[in-house]
Amino acid sequence: MPVTTYSPAAGPSPVGGFGTEDNPLVHPITGERLVFRKRARDTGGELFELTVYMGPASFVAVPHVHPEQEERFEISGAEVMFRIGRSEQRHAPGDVVVVPAGAPHTWWNPGQIEATTLVQFRPALDIETLFETWFGLAAAGKVNRKGVPNPLQLMVLTRAFHREARPAPPLSWLAVPASYVLAPIGRALGYKARYDEYSGPLPANDSRPEDKNS
Q1: Cis ω before 170 (30° cut-off from 0)
Q2: Which of 4, 105, 146, 203 supports an S-S bond with 84, CB 3.0-4.6 Å?
Q3: Domain boundaries, the chain
Q4: Given this structure, which CATH class describes domain 8-122?
């Protein structure tokens, strides 16, 4: 299947232009590829749905928690390994995995065949923008060899998307309090939670702050 990686240098895309079949979000370090199926604006904020394609040995960059969202996975294509809390389990195509809000988790493809997983978040919140920023930074080469942005950028994201995601404990015990102090410093230095080159310009009627500063 051909993969198109968007180039931040190409300039802003129209809203909704990223995360499509023609222009998926691609993380060059972790090997993930995302295609959005149902966005918050399509479901009245009740659901965000996407397909995650994980190539051989693909992984999620950071074990994490979604404080206010349930995450549901429908596995197909190949087996996927999950770690939820302290439990680690391999799931086969056809399995459904539900991670409740607040549960630390991560997942990866342990095999040599691409795994295709339908993922749903309830409620949607603004997880779409978080994905666009996270993958946009990776595509622009602004992450380390583990696929993670620099500490000040990470603090800006942790603060802005505190409802959507945070690192799993024990890292969150330091990262979340630190974000109150370090996120304003990061923003003052030009780091953002949302970039037009990764998400497209906000519509004129969108009341969200440009940087989701909260």
Answers
A1: yes
A2: 105
A3: 8-122, 129-199
A4: mainly beta
